[in-house]
Amino acid sequence: MRPALTTINATSKQSASVIFFHGSGDTGPGILEWVRFLLGRNLEYPHIKIVYPTAPMQKYTPLNGQESNVWFDRRSVNIAAQESKRSMSQCYEIVHQLIEEEVSAGIPTSRIIVGGFSMGGALALHTGYHLNAGLAGVFAHSSFLNRSSIVYESLQSRSHHHLPELRMFHGEGDTLVPLEWGLETFKSLQISGVNGTFQPMKNTLHELKKSSLS
């Protein structure tokens, strides 16, 4: 099923796209408003379209099975937990559709960046390093991968010559997703051949900050 999309179009001629995945319980319009609040304006560029998709409503185990806007189900919010492969595979179908829509509009995968906040950042990592390594780049805010993630398996069997560059940001005071989980994820991706940067953010909880968007 195609997710609802909120978009900020390029102000001139589009030649690239950014797909920005929100965190659990949020929506595309919700994270757009968050970004707008932090910047005092939209995140917009002359040649880049920003796409904010909304995750489907589905049962979410960490909320005792209540429905929420989440990209995939988790057994628990813990780096040591096992991934729900069935739920991830359903999510991948949405991601493939989002990327294919941009490609059909004339934007090559090498001109598409994916990123997100929290669960959305985890989905971006899956997208860039498991589903489609031909993307231009990946960013993740306050995110982590499970230690046994399929992403690491995929990277071990793939050439490292064309992996997207990674930018990770993480609040030093994050208590929902501890900084150590994000750093462990980044180091594991580095070992697997991913190049990029990890930026701890002082005086920051589980939240976006203006400095990571500018």
From TrEMBL:
Keyword field: Hydrolase
Span of domain Phospholipase/carboxylesterase/thioesterase: 7-213
**EC code:** 3.1.2.22
Please state what class of enzyme this protein is.
Answer: hydrolase
**Coiled-coil residues:** none
What GO terms fall under cellular component here? cytoplasm
An annotated Gene Ontology molecular function: palmitoyl-(protein) hydrolase activity
Source organism's superkingdom?
Eukaryota
- Give the UniProt family note: Belongs to the AB hydrolase superfamily. AB hydrolase 2 family.
What is this protein's name?
Answer: palmitoyl-protein hydrolase
Provide the species name.
Drosophila persimilis (Fruit fly)
